[in-house]
Amino acid sequence: MNRRAQFLEVLGIPAEWVPRRLAEASVEVETKVEVATVAVAEVEVEVAMPAPAAPPRSVVIEALSPQPAVQDEAALARDAAIAAMDWAALEAAVAQCTACGLSDSRTNTVLGVGDRRAEWMLVGEAPGENEDLQGEPFVGQAGKLLDNMLGALGLARDRNVFIANVLKCRPPGNRNPEPEEVAHCEPFLRRQIALIRPKVIVVLGRFAAQSLLRSTTPIGKLRGTVHQYEGIPVVVTYHPAYLLRTLTDKARAWEDLCLAREVHDRAGAEA
Ligand code: URA
């Protein structure tokens, strides 16, 4: 085990990705392949990763309508009210929401966490048990991995990224969200995105990706393409909880984050 892996194990951090550009500023020669050490429990694997400064690639922009085809009048009025809210009103509306049955079983609503003027936004599926108890997204093991992934990009939830979920309340027993729950909750997320206006949205996992993009395409096919949500570029990657179980897809997730960084940097250059 190398020194970095030992160090991380002592810290109790299961995995850390550090782009060479950030970790070894003194290295002058750019290589085509990035090697990161991924240490989880007893397993240590060397994963080949693409260099963060990969040459620009052409990206297909897919525009998908976030608007449902049919909505009744009450739902339209509720959507319009939410679409006009500032952060204080939005926070209060989420905290008091009883639009679906999830309000009966929740401990806390989970609005989101981070910089409300961040250029990066991450969107997960729904709070789990720990998130429901603490009122903050991604606070369990998957959250630790997510924080490490963000750290590799120079991002941190308390500094320069905003993290939210499609659903603001926990589905009991962590079951999959119901379409009706998503329909009631989506206006909150849409308003959050409109208030933050991030340069890039990274969507975590199949469920969040398919909900946000109104798609039934499998996640493997949604990855690698830059989608759009209300004019904001969206990059899809695997859910960190899935990555904890599937080490081999960490390299793919790293590719996705590199694509997101490319999209972010390009948006910055055009601004
Ligand atoms: N999984 C999610 O998608 N979101 C959370 O906040 C926690 C786990």
Task: Walk me through this protein's architecture.
GO terms for molecular function: 4 iron, 4 sulfur cluster binding; metal ion binding; uracil DNA N-glycosylase activity. Pfam families: UDG. Keywords: 4Fe-4S, DNA damage, DNA repair, Hydrolase, Iron, Iron-sulfur, Metal-binding. With 271 residues, this protein is α/β, with parallel strands linked by helices. The protein has one domain (73-270): 3-Layer(aba) Sandwich (Uracil-DNA Glycosylase, subunit E), CATH 3.40.470.10. The chain has 12 helices and 9 strands. The strands form 2 sheets. Strands 3-8-9-7-5-6-4 form a 7-stranded mixed sheet, sandwiched between helices. A two-stranded antiparallel ribbon has the order 1-2. A hairpin with a 2-residue loop joins strand 8 (226-229) and strand 9 (232-237). Bound molecules: uracil (URA).
How many distinct domains? 1
Helix content: 40-55%
What is the CATH T-level topology? Uracil-DNA Glycosylase, subunit E
Envelope shape:
globular
Number of helices: 12
SS-derived structural category: alpha/beta
SSE run:
HHEEEHHHEEHHEHEHHEEHH
For the record, the CATH class is Alpha Beta
Question: Which stretches are poorly predicted, pLDDT < 50 over at least 5 residues?
Answer: 2-13, 18-58
Largest sheet: 7 strands, mixed
Strand content: 15-25%
Q: What is the count of β-strands?
A: 9
Rg result:
19 Å
Present as ligands are:
uracil
CATH fourth-tier homologous superfamily: Uracil-DNA glycosylase-like domain
Mean of residue pLDDT values: 82
